[in-house]
């Protein structure tokens, strides 16, 4: 499995920024990459909120994976050592 060099928070924030900016989604920019590079940090709080929502897996997720590992991975993504 490939491992990203970007944090989960940054990747989510970049997707949120791209969705807002790109004409492939809700925005108007045909080439939004530079704008996303400049504006993704504006979406960090929302990205963290998304990750906090995912701390508990749903039933389908729990049936196919280890819940404890999932919880530790999300805690690590949030930088919360108390939840590890």
Rg of Cα set: 15 Å
Mean pLDDT: 87
Structural class, from secondary structure content?
A: mainly alpha
What is the helix fraction of residues, given as a range? Answer: 55-70%
Number of strands: 0
Domain count: 2
First-residue to last-residue Cα separation? 22 Å
Q: What's this, in brief?
A:
The chain is mostly helical and 84 residues long.
Question: What tags apply to this protein structure?
Answer:
mainly alpha
SSE order and pairing:
Blueprint lengths: L7 H14 L11 H7 L4 H10 L5 H6 L2 H12 L6
What does this structure look like?
The chain has 84 residues and is mainly alpha-helical. It folds into two domains: 1-44, no CATH class; 54-84, no CATH class. 58% of the residues lie in helices and 0% in strands. It has helices spanning 8-21, 33-39, 44-53, 59-64, 67-78. Helix 1 packs across helix 2. It is elongated and about 40 Å long.
